[in-house]
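Thread: quick sanity check before group meeting

JM: Hey all, I'm pulling together slides for Thursday and realized we never actually wrote out the predicted structure for the chain we discussed last week. Dropping the sequence here so it's in one place. If anyone has concerns about the input, flag it before I start.
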Amino acid sequence: MSKQLSTARHQEKIMELLFKMLFSLFLVSFLSSVFYFYFLLWLRPERMREKLRRQGITGPQPAFFYGNALDVKRILAMAAKQDRVEGCSPHDIEYYVFPHLHTWTDKYGPVFLYSRGNMSVLEVAKPELARDILLHQSLDIGRPNYIRTYRGALLGRSIITANGEEWVQHRKIIGPQFYAEKVKSMVDLMEESVLPLLKSWESRVESGGSANIRVDQEFKDMSADIISRVSFGSCFAEGKDIFSKLKLLHKFISQQMILSGIPGVRHLPTRSNREVWRLDEEIKTMIVKVVEKRKGMMAGNEIDLLQALLDSVTRGDISPDMTHKILVENSKAIYFAGHETVSTSASWAMLLLALYPEWQIRVRNEVEEIFKSRLPTAEMLEKMKVVKMVILETLRLYPTTSFIEREPFKDMKFGDFSLPKGIIISIPVYSLHRSVELWGPDALEFNPERFANGIRDACKFPELFMPFGLGPRMCLGQNFAITELKIVISLILSRFKLSLPPNYVHSAAYRMILEPENEVIVNMKTV
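JM (edit): ok, ran it. Output follows.
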């Protein structure tokens, strides 16, 4: 009996010891996790911020976990309740589209610090400093890593987000597809997509009459058709299906922007996240099917981006097992850069030309002089000085890429500042494009004449005209976008006079790109 009691006590002691050990392990793990998250969410960002504060850079005080997200939400809500300032330029959009940055710039100056969750952001609107950062050639600075984390479903590991040698490889494969000479060969292809749109509008506008047409959605469909042909060639019908899903994906991701940087939010099974996950998988499957279909075709019949990537596998530039991944990621990224941004710029151009009819007349006169009732060729488009001036001024006032962001991958020095590794550098293109210091007293006015002698004479620092970025990471699609816009604007104005409905209100919104806040409805009358 005593032996049994002794055994029972011994077992109790073992269980008690085991419980204490497990509890100690749990406590150590819990405290380690708490410290790790404290380090991740506060200590490491705070150390980074302190390095910048010692150099005189200040900004709004962040809150634990949220950073300045709640401040942004509060300032946006206040701005939404305020009436627009009467008598100011309709293009003075900064105070209601980016009211938080407008407020903080007034308070802390052109260089200040704020936080998105656990990400520390250095806002740089100082021209010389912004120029030095963007023109830096080293691979030690590149696109912020967070873009892949929070916008990975849309941009993935593409040329837009890649860094270092990976970016060099992507550029080597994709870059030649958008060289100036290659873009010239795409003019006929672009016209094939634009002409059906014009015929549709003409059928809605009776002879001598007029019609209100919603152009923004139709530009998106047209641009999707163009980029589908460029990307997928004979498989462009499948490409259009892919891009329709990418459009939805863009919508859901843009709704999540204010929460970027708050840890864990992207993993929550919210409706928005579930839609993003579903669309991402569907798009990947569709692109892989297109790739397999093209592999079954005779090589050399296509000259599109898809074939260029497949040819890279044949040459050994990329491994076969990476083909699908590179195609999927870059197809999504090219959609966003080459479809949404160009169609949005076309919408802004229509609004501005409708607001300023004197520029319609100048464009139409130039089109009649050069085209002589013919469809434009690449050589004709190169001669279009007035149209290009209108495009450049549109891109100055309404750059779809409103921010250029960089991240140093080691401590680096720019100007008087030593910037720590991991800081997110955000350069507000929309603000620098409206700077009186750079563009003169009429910086908030639509004045294409400023580009009469090119970009160099239009701006104090011509490098800071950057709707397509600046430096080694400048957008490869610049020639493609300008050519498409030239075709769209010239062909529309050769057939229609534009005006705005009486109830039109000029307003902009930022949804990953700077776009008209409301539907773009333009009254069209045949010339």
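AS: nice. The longest helix spans residues 2-53. The mean pLDDT is 86.
JM: adding both to the slides.
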